[in-house]
Amino acid sequence: MLIVHATLVVQPDKRDEFVNAFAGLAETTNKEDGVLSYTLYESAATPSSFVVVEEYKDEDAFHAHMTSEHFQAALPLLSGVLAAPPKIVKHEAQDGVEVALG
Amino acid sequence: MLIVHATLVVQPDKRDEFVNAFAGLAETTNKEDGVLSYTLYESAATPSSFVVVEEYKDEDAFHAHMTSEHFQAALPLLSGVLAAPPKIVKHEAQDGVEVALG
């Protein structure tokens, strides 16, 4: 599988516009074949700094997402609200193992 | 390396108490040997639902964190504010590769 952490720093005055627009992208993306999860989170310590935690079945699924119509259509919106270039880091990973606490 | 996603659902009226207390844990944890990153994020779609995105050099570093004094001391606080048992999933992973957009 593939784990992707996409860090997005948004202009503070564009935060709500970004969150609302991203909700549509996330909804469509989570319906794609091979997308295991695709969730937007905001840093608790640094408002308007976000991470998208993305999990894909494999590299092909990730490529299919990045070249999808809905993702490509979202890029102009993203570039209009970001305060810095996005940092997208992918990791080849093994399937998750649940860990008990304590 | 190891990637850990720890999902924590907090009682809404305990959200601020949780975020403030977690800041101290995150600060100490990020100084541990072998901790590459340890960051608390809140779901944009579901307030009071959090993920801790954790990256460790290896299994030993993760074990050292889970058995550390500061993490063990935080457990009673966590159990007092969580609305559901935490879900902690770890992945053996390769080092990240940065991906260019578009």
From TrEMBL, chains A, B:
PANTHER family: ABM DOMAIN-CONTAINING PROTEIN, QUINOL MONOOXYGENASE YGIN-RELATED
Protein's name according to its UniProt entry: Antibiotic biosynthesis monooxygenase
Molecular function GO labels: monooxygenase activity
One Pfam family this sequence matches: ABM
Boundaries of every ABM domain copy: 2-90
InterPro entries: ABM_dom, AI-2_Isomerase_LsrG, Dimeric_a/b-barrel
Keyword Oxidoreductase attributed: yes
Alphabetical UniProt keywords: Monooxygenase, Oxidoreductase
Coiled-coil residues: none
